[in-house]
Amino acid sequence: MAFGFTATRPMRLAAAILILCCAAVRAEEASSPTSQQPAAATPSPSPSGQKGGPGRGTAATPSPAAEQNRLPPDSTTQQSLALPGRTLNFTATAGSIRLFDDKREPQADIAYTSYQLDGADRASRPVTFLFNGGPGASSAWLQLGAAGPWRLQIGGDGAVSSATPDLLPNAETWLDFTDLVFIDPVGTGYSRFVASGEDVRKRFLSVDGDVSSIALVIRRWLEKYDRLASPKFVAGESYGGIRGPKIVRNLQTQQGVGVRGLILVSPLLDFRDFSGSSLLQYSYTLPTMAAVAREVREAGKVPLTRADLADVERYAQGEFLTDLIKGQADTQAATRLADKVAALTGIDQAVSRRLAGRFEVSEFRREFDRRNGRVTGRYDASVMGFDPYPDSNSARFGDPSGDSLMAPLTSAAVELTTRKLNWRPDGSYQLLSESVNRSWDFGRGPAESISQLRQILALDPKMKLLVGHGLFDLATPYFASKVLLDQLPAYASPDRVKLVVYPGGHMFYSRDSARKAFRSEVEAMVK
């Protein structure tokens, strides 16, 4: 889940809608935006809190303000989960890892939730680190929607604001084949700054500072739990598509941690194609718009698959682009394009001609069923909701497929943390932080991670990449990833790089069939 794109802030893509610790590595760490308190020389299998000091020398004394903002000691509990055909016994830990700057001053406490299967061999047992996107999103979506031991129903009757946030045993949990560590970047979940000052916020709330801090948390968790020898995997959703490849690259080259595989869920890989005057954005979203039209037209009688959109994909990469590039100066091409788009999307031909067949996401969402005063979802455009201002000249609606999940997901995350896992931080749980999103520093120009994808796959020929998307996702359309992945060199062969697409939206795992199928793909990669 991410804030994603808006017409007004394309770079933030914002809307409501996761070692070889030698002296050389420590020297690199000192020059990074953050450094964290090392673990004890002999980490405890189930530590109750952060151990050790902030360096090999004398520990810096935390300021009273930092201690006042500190999260409580880690809580470790033994859990048992009865699932169809098996029972999982595991150790759950809700806690935090404190990060320091190069002067050994405390900067932030990063909250995590980990699940480790009991009785497994630590050296051979895989471990997967998961985070969502935003920027400003906690890891609740992946934990409670897809991979964690407990699941919240976030589709159908569960996808309404007043739904009871009941946590159910998750038959599709990934815990059967990998231990799980869910990470909440600073400012999300219960993670927080412990140092004051705008310079601290600027370091963390940036593309590079965010990557450095999460990579360091991963390394410290591995040290803390004696898991450096374990096969390691990284999974990110939405803006996690920017984070993920960059974090893996940082782990490989800065933290001394090798990664076996990268799993990206509904990722955004390149902001540049969805900003400014880029024409590719219209090509990337067209197959999803057509998919929504066909899904609604068939009323779900026959499950729509990506194969059913082969004709639209060919058009979006061929004749559509040819006519699009000719522009409105070529009236025949413009009319031909507009009429074809109208036929594919079901939108009135006159409207399509007025817009020259170039539907921005917000325009499609409003025009698709405007006659009935309804708008489509952005995270799942097959979900419809009422337009609160159907007669307004401007778009003044939210997202019926994302906004309604805020309340149940927040309540479920708090319930899980405080009651099941017995960890009770003060302050509010931040499912989505608009403050983080508004403050985000994207650096010089729109962010992209294709460069890092090329580097991490080239560096390690055994590393694999799995990308999963939903057909009806207008926030991060699947066709964009398809086109970008097709540009990778030959070493990114099909046995190493795989794209899977399911009926569903941004959180395609809210649908039972998609969640089960994607779990099988992840299991095949990890094993």
From TrEMBL:
<dbReference type="Pfam" id="PF00450">
    <property type="entry name" value="Peptidase_S10"/>
</dbReference>
<dbReference type="GO" id="GO:0004185">
    <property type="term" value="F:serine-type carboxypeptidase activity"/>
</dbReference>
<dbReference type="InterPro" id="IPR029058">
    <property type="entry name" value="AB_hydrolase_fold"/>
</dbReference>
<keyword id="KW-0325">Glycoprotein</keyword>
<keyword id="KW-0378">Hydrolase</keyword>
<keyword id="KW-0732">Signal</keyword>
<protein>
    <submittedName>
        <fullName>Peptidase S10</fullName>
    </submittedName>
</protein>
<keyword id="KW-0645">Protease</keyword>
<feature type="region of interest" description="Disordered">
    <location>
        <begin position="32"/>
        <end position="85"/>
    </location>
</feature>
<dbReference type="InterPro" id="IPR001563">
    <property type="entry name" value="Peptidase_S10"/>
</dbReference>
<feature type="signal peptide">
    <location>
        <begin position="1"/>
        <end position="27"/>
    </location>
</feature>
<dbReference type="GO" id="GO:0006508">
    <property type="term" value="P:proteolysis"/>
</dbReference>
<feature type="compositionally biased region" description="Low complexity">
    <location>
        <begin position="32"/>
        <end position="49"/>
    </location>
</feature>
<keyword id="KW-0121">Carboxypeptidase</keyword>
<dbReference type="InterPro" id="IPR018202">
    <property type="entry name" value="Ser_caboxypep_ser_AS"/>
</dbReference>
